[in-house]
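Many introductory courses stop at the sequence. We go one step further.
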Amino acid sequence: MNQPSLDITAPRGAIARFLDAVERVGNKLPDPAVLFLGLMLVVWVVSALLANVSFAEIDPRSGDPIQIRNLLAGASFTTFMADMVRTFVTFAPLGVVLVAMLGLGVAEHTGFINAALRAVLSITPKMLLTPMLIAVGIFSHVAVDAGYVLVIPLGAVIFYAAGRHPLAGIAAAFAGVSGGFSATIIPSSLDPLLAGLTQEAANLIDPSVVVNPLNNYYFTTASTVLVVLVGWFLTDRILEPRLRGTPVDGDASDMPSMETLTAPERRGLWLAVLAMIAVAVAVAATAMGAGSAWRAPADAPSGAGELLVATAPLMQSIVPLIFILFLVPGIVYGYASGTVKSHRDIIAGMSKAMGGMGYYIVMAFFAAQFIYAFGQSNLGALLAIKGANGLQALGLPTGVTLVGIVLLSGAVNLLVGSASAKWALIGAIMVPMLMQLGISPDLTQAAYRVGDSSTNIITPLLPYFPLIVVFCQRYVKSSGIGTLLALMLPFSIALLVTWSAFLLAFWALGLPLGVGASYVYPAG
């Protein structure tokens, strides 16, 4: 199998030297599994030290002063031990990753993914690969977290097969999937989720406020173009020149190639694509009817009868559907092209995919325990509320306040991974506070989304961060946390700056934020 040649000589400019330093320091951190274990122990000790301290900050979830829970107390510790297995097996990213990888493993093992990418790359201009990949990452938001396990590894495959550095493909895809989390053309389940929390916060002082689920839609749609352009420039002009000094030393037999498709491969590809389309059409046909079982049930708390809400079986089945959408064409391609002789080859593909996930499973165990402990301690809630109250006390002009919300959200994101959990904490304070300053809930939510998205890609506490490190190690064995941080830090800084400026421009020009949205309160 021919491999693309990668230039490993390049001048080291100031930015490249700085990122090299970030990588060296970051890679001196302990293994991610040990890092999560160490952080969990720190949380235990700090929770014990602060458990008897009285805080004036009010917890918006209960209305009472926030209280740190001592995780070393007898009842808390025994509960932690009793829940350890459940905490691990119910860790959301674990099931998402493993189920999706079963189908992807078959599609990759039989050669379907390789053949499909070679066909796409043969007609796609090389210069457009980066924006195409970032855009696909952004579009993947409609499939909830599927982009992490589908688009990001394919980004590496696409770039490597095109003769470009695979880590640049991972970075570009990660920037689209996670850095551009709040940039979207197709509404996702996140929109009604955040809008619902915003309305609850606004109703604390004005029960008449109604927040439309698409209240940021115009802004987030326009942001898609911004994220693609910023990611495109950074990937091609900053990241790839730096990566020319990083040799690819992964398993050569496991790398994609750009060889011309053979006749059996073309036949298998056509049949596999038809099979994939047939599965998609079948799902679409059964989802269209008003009484479809894919729609949210009539007794759902919100969005009854809708397809694209969190309570809809369709949205809850995204990962199983991805499993089927790759398993079926993978099998069809294998038999049609001759790469599969019996069902044992299919099982071998699944086993190979699971074998490669061993390291991630270990990291997921410790990550799950840390996240559970951090949430139970209330330390994250305390930090978020203190930050929001501090911003309120500053009494800054509107434009500066918006930037403050962006920076606060980005900082809290480094400690609390869930977008809804962060907004439940910050929003309950910031939305009512800023309403009293004449700033609408819609604008406050938009500022939160910018900060939350921009720092997703540099927090090792993101549940999928260890998985992406594993993807990097497939191509560059020495990859670690520092490697990924150095890859993504330019994206995070650039998005914070340009996206904040973009929001301020929207506000200054009075461009509509979304459906039924306003910039001021009360709406004029």
